[in-house]
Amino acid sequence: MSQPTEPDDDSAPLNLASVATIDYSSEDPAHPVEHLVDEHTGPGGSYWAAAQADTTEQLVLEFDRPQSIGRLVYEVQEMERERTQEVHVEASTDAGRSYHRVVVQEYTFSPGGATLEHEDLRLELHDLTHLRLTIVPNKRGSGVASLTSLRVFA
After folding, report:
1. Where exactly are the structural domains of the chain?
2. pLDDT at 4
3. I want to staple 51 with a disulfide (CB 3.0 to 4.6 A). Which of 26, 42, 92, 132 is the partner?
């Protein structure tokens, strides 16, 4: 299980609510997309969850103006089920007409062991108009697509 860490530089995350629109394929009303960008991170933090289990979901950050991204930090927590969730991160510089793959990560959760994954990715992405995360909640096992937090740094 990875532990949350603080940035090793003085940069602050972008205020996503003021620089982007977050589009999503679905959300559980009890766990809305706004929970991704609140300050409740780490174990037990608020989170976004999809409306139904075992469905691949997408979150798309549509930036108000092109952005350079140097770092992406996100967390996933699963305390109830043993499952493997996969996250694809893709970037677009042409208003979302095409995307290129940045990274694919998968996480295996076990209620008796690993329950939280903290990912801190160093990137060199420039002139981004869109950043898309595709979440496959049930690569192995059954579950609901979810993310606890999402932070983007210039």
Report:
1. 16-153
2. 39
3. 26
